[in-house]
Amino acid sequence: MPHRVAVLALDGVMPMDLGIAARVLNEALDPTGARLYSVTTCSLGGRPVRTNEGFRIVVDDDESLLEGADTVVIATQEPGEHLLGTGELPARVAAAFARIGAETRIVSLCTSAFLLAAAGLLDGLRATTHWALCDQFTRLFPEIEVDPDVLFVDNGRVLTAAGGAAGIDLFVHLVRRDHGATVATAAARRCVVAPWREGGQAQFIEHPVPKDADRSTSATRQWVLTRLAEPVTLRDMARHAHMSERTFTRRFRAEVGTSPLQWLVQSRLTQARRLLESSDLTVARIATACGFGDPVALRKHFHTHLGLSPLAYRRAHCAPEPARTEPLQVP
Fold this sequence. Notes:
Blueprint: E1 3-9, H1 15-18, H2 20-25, E2 37-43, E3 49-50, E4 56-57, E5 71-74, H3 81-86, H4 91-97, E6 105-109, H5 113-118, E7 126-127, H6 134-140, E8 145-146, E9 152-154, E10 158-161, H7 165-179, H8 181-191, H9 218-225, H10 234-240, H11 245-256, H12 260-278, H13 283-289, H14 295-306, H15 310-316
Parallel strand pairs: 1-2, 1-5, 5-6, 6-10, 7-8
Antiparallel strand pairs: 3-4, 9-10
Helix pairs in contact: 7-8, 10-11
């Protein structure tokens, strides 16, 4: 039976974001070509919903749909004055949220994190929303750790996305979490989107493109990605870019949104995950191939950034267990 997904559309909904869940999840197929998710949209009272683009959307279901859902998605909507002024849910929205089961997975897109926060669903958790509203979010909900520098946050049952394209990344992530890398990659390919962007990747927070393209760090980033197995240092990167370390770090952060060394760790983790998913290389060989040096360092970074061990990650993403111990050639 397909996983049942109910998308709640509220007044002020952003049309593009309203369709993201169905667009991605409907492309997740089992080996026979059957859909793994059933996505349905509802509204309060089943009434037409006013969008923020000057038109209304007609839906077929009301909020009773939330009761039987395995996952509930709160589509991006403009937070109302009542919510922004008091931090409290409007009564009808609160009544709809009360229909959501205690074990139901809940996803918010962009500013809908305000609704989850007002409902108490994010208390004590880490969350994200659109970077431009993170300060206001913190003032309203100081008990919640809001992170303006990530695309999405996965707390297990409750997930929040920064908005726009980050919602696509979150749903590809959910398919990956539910059904493994092969299904997720195929779904992303059908949607013509990137198969994987790390949730911890920085939001694009007004990082200007350098006026002098010749002084960009892009070429150096490409150079590093072909040398992940080597002990690349900040000095090596700055020298390749023909800059001082200080200038290189400043330009790198302006373009990428993070420091060179943080980016290097994330790039190595991404490569390690690809190898865990697609190969039967041992953890030791993957640690060497990705520049971590030894399995202990790889495990430490996996626990820090992903909250699980490399072998647990491999099992969760359906890659084959290591079956041989002889040296293998790593491309």
